[in-house]
Specification:
The chain has one domain: Vaccinia Virus protein VP39 (Rossmann fold), CATH 3.40.50. Helices cover 34% and strands 12% of the residues. The chain contains twelve helices and ten strands. Strands 1, 2, 3, 4, 5, 6, 7 and 8 form an eight-stranded mixed sheet that branches. Helix 1 packs across helix 2, helix 2 runs antiparallel to helix 9 and helix 3 packs parallel to helix 4. The protein is globular, with a radius of gyration of 19 Å. Bound molecules: S-adenosylmethionine (SAM). The site of S-adenosylmethionine (SAM) has 20 residues, from helix 1 and helix 3.
């Protein structure tokens, strides 16, 4: 598919190309490298965080396509093509998966177009997250995804570029309303924490890229708009269904969180939804375990998988979990972090 070509100015740094530089890519210009170098000078481990972001994106895609059984993904803020792109991961699992990439950077669009020229299942679209109506009415977005079947909406490393004054809650709500029931939403977001390095990074992004809005864990949770977080909830990036071996314990990895939520298949009077207890991760999470604002009846513990895998039996600590912290003690398949000494200490603090 051909995205509308838009002009670009190589003398101005752009987030996609700075990110590409930090990932070790070659699709960047001097202005992008200068911003990347300034970040590296003040936070030498920043590349660890960038790598962790790519890794969690891969884990989420494998979860959505391989475990949930989705076969269509809308990746907003897709970034420059790199190793193991979303469509490659997804189509390795299910070659029929359709992927629509959407980005507002002309360089991203031209590179993706070149890469995908012969790909009949993957498409690239010019669009802006801050214009959800434009996304939802884009003929390519309408045509290449079936809006009557569940869709995986990926927003990895993009919402922290939408400022509060641009009403990110309204932006995502418009997208969520349009998603078919049974769809999933993934958010990766940079965190506003007490670590001074987070403030330094945010300032450098504001200066270098013109915008950045880090948010607290609770503010990010609000961006799910009351959708049901699946286990393990909204957590620090390395804690989202970790796949060892991976570096999981570094201050830079506490600067971003990740979560996946589901739009319920149906509503009913039973099983009032209670927000899953979100791992403490050393932060104060006053609203964990409280009913969400729109917590009218929600789906019980079993959901229908949209494709081939049959019903998805959620573990007791996923949808409708009622006991705060129960999943901290349940044996599960992502259990490696249960034995992580530093995080276990934090969890104990959290439960106390
Ligand atoms: C840090 S990169 C993340 C790339 C990829 N999602 C990942 O996590 O590896 C952020 C991407 O979002 C894009 N972006 C930023 N603001 C956007 C907006 N308002 N609408 C569409 N794309 C945007 C940038 O061009 C860039 O490609």
């Amino acid at each position: 598919m051909t995205a509308a070509s838009a002009p670009f100015d190589a003398s101005k740094p752009h987030v996609a190309r700075v990110y590409d530089y930090l990932l070790g890519g070659k699709d960047n210009f001097a202005a992008d490298r200068a911003v990347g170098e300034r970040m590296l000078a003040s936070i030498p481990a920043v590349q660890l965080g960038v790598r962790a972001q790519r890794d969690v994106l891969g884990r989420v895609v494998r979860y959505l396509v391989g475990e949930v059984g989705l076969n269509q993904l809308l990746d907003i803020g897709s970034g420059l093509p790199t190793a193991d792109n979303v469509h490659e991961i997804a189509q390795r699992i299910d070659p029929a998966t359709r992927v629509v990439y959407l980005d507002n950077d002309p360089i991203v669009l031209s590179h993706a177009e070149a890469l995908l020229a012969d790909d009949k299942s993957t498409f690239v679209v010019n669009g802006d997250l801050r214009d959800p109506a434009g996304i939802l009415t884009n003929p390519d977005v309408r045509e290449h995804l079936d809006w009557e079947q569940p869709i995986g909406l990926l927003m990895c490393g993009i919402l922290h570029y939408v400022l509060d004054k641009e009403h990110p809650g309204d932006v995502v709500a418009a997208l969520y309303r349009a998603l078919p029931s049974g769809s999933y939403v993934f958010i990766h977001h940079l965190l506003s924490t007490e670590d001074p390095a987070a403030a330094v990074l945010q300032e450098q992004m504001r200066t270098g890229l013109g915008r950045a809005q880090f948010r607290t864990m609770n503010e990010v949770r609000a961006l799910f708009g009351g959708l049901e977080l699946v286990a393990p909830g909204l957590v620090l990036v390395p804690d989202w269904r970790p796949e060892p071996p991976a570096i999981r314990d570094h201050p830079v990895l506490e600067m971003a969180c990740a979560g996946v939520a589901r739009k319920p298949l149906r509503r009913g009077p039973q099983s009032p939804y209670v927000s899953p207890a979100v791992p403490c991760s050393g932060r104060s999470l006053p609203d964990a375990g409280r009913p969400l604002p729109d917590a009218g009846g929600r789906l019980g513990p079993v959901a229908h998988s949209p494709r081939k895998t049959g019903p998805v039996a959620h573990t007791p600590h996923t949808v409708g979990a009622r006991v705060r912290g129960s999943w901290h003690t349940s044996p599960d398949r992502w259990g490696s972090w249960h034995t992580h000494p530093k995080r276990d200490a934090k969890k104990a603090e959290c439960r106390a």
